Amino acid sequence: MCGIVGYLGNKNTKEILLEGLKELEYRGYDSAGIAVLQDNDFESFKAVGKLINLEEKTKDFITDKFAVGIGHTRWATHGKPTELNAHPHLGNSSYVVHNGIIENYAKLKKELMDEGVVFLSQTDTEVIVHQFEKNLKSAANPFEAFGKTVKELEGAFAILLVTKEEEKTIFFAKQGSPMLVGINAENEKYFASSDTPLIGHCSDVNYFEDGDYGYVTADEIFILDKMDNQKQPHFSKLTQNKLSAQKDGYRFFMEKEIYEQTTVIADTLMGRLGVEEILFDELENGLFDGINEIKLCACGTSYHSALSATYLFERYSKIKTSVEVASEFRYREPIMSKDTLFVVISQSGETADTLETLKMAKNAGLKTLVICNVDNSSMVRLADASILTRAGIEKGVASTKAFATQVTVFWMLSLYIAKLRGSLEAGEIARQITLLREIPVCVKVADSMHEKIKRLSKRYLHGHGFFFIGRDIFYPLALEGALKLKEISYLHAEGYPSGEMKHGPIALADPELFTIALLPQHLLYEKAKSNVEELSARDSTICAISPLEFDKADDFIQISTCQDYMQEFFEMMVVIQLLALEISIRLGNDVDMPRNLAKSVTVE
Question: Which among 55, 95, 267, 487 counts the fewest CB atoms within 10 Å?
Answer without folding.
Answer: 55
